[in-house]
Design a protein that fits this description.
With 189 residues, this protein is an alpha+beta fold. 59% of the residues lie in helices and 19% in strands. It has three helices and four strands. It has a four-stranded antiparallel beta sheet. Helix 1 packs antiparallel against helix 2. The longest helix is centred in the N-terminal third of the chain and has 87 residues. The chain is rod-shaped. The termini are far apart.
Length: 189
């Protein structure tokens, strides 16, 4: 009995130590699981953040490409408008013939048909004066003062036609061969 009494405290201490050890290991396992969840959460957040950065970068690149395409279209439109005006204000027969060919290749079929209908002289031709002010006489220069994009394919050009000011709006689109062409012409003044 003496032996049992002296062993009992030792036995009680060993049970306490073992249960503390088990409780500690449960606590440690719970802590490891929480740490792993945090690491997984951080990894997901980093991946989501990277995807958002990549998505934004892709959107920015697409927007930049769209801006560059619009700028190129604006430049082409301005070139076409300026060349047509130079051709239609020329007094040289060679320039007039070249102008008709240029207009036919840089206007839509419906626009060319309208220019043919508007031609009110004998024979065949294009009413190239539709691109001008309609002035019959003048002493001043003929030149384009400005070409401005109005958006949605519309452009305004302000000009002097033998010194007479004028303004027109043209609409630019692409034809079946993907060339840009004028398909509408409106007199502003």
């Amino acid at each position: 009995m003496k032996m049992t009494k002296s062993l009992f405290p030792l036995l009680l201490m060993s049970v306490a130590i073992v249960s503390c050890g088990q409780s500690g290991s449960k606590h440690q396992a719970g802590q490891q699981q929480t740490e792993q969840q945090m690491k997984d959460s951080i990894a997901r957040a980093a991946k989501d953040s990277l995807l958002n950065v990549q998505r934004k970068d892709s959107i920015n690149k697409a927007e930049e490409a769209k801006k560059q395409q619009a700028a190129a279209m604006d430049k082409q439109a301005e070139t076409i408008i300026r060349k047509i005006f130079r051709y239609v204000t020329s007094t040289s027969p060679e320039m007039e013939d070249a102008g008709d060919r240029y207009i036919e290749s840089h206007c839509s079929k419906s626009m060319v048909a309208k220019l043919r209908r508007d031609y009110d002289m004998d024979g065949y031709g294009l009413a190239t004066w539709d691109f001008r002010s309609g002035a019959q006489d003048g002493d001043g220069p003929s030149r384009i003062k400005s070409v401005k994009s109005l958006g949605d394919g519309w452009y305004r050009y302000d000009f002097l036609d033998m010194g007479v000011p004028g303004a027109k709006k043209v609409h630019i689109t692409t034809n079946d061969t993907n060339d840009i062409v004028i398909d509408k012409l409106i007199t502003i003044k």
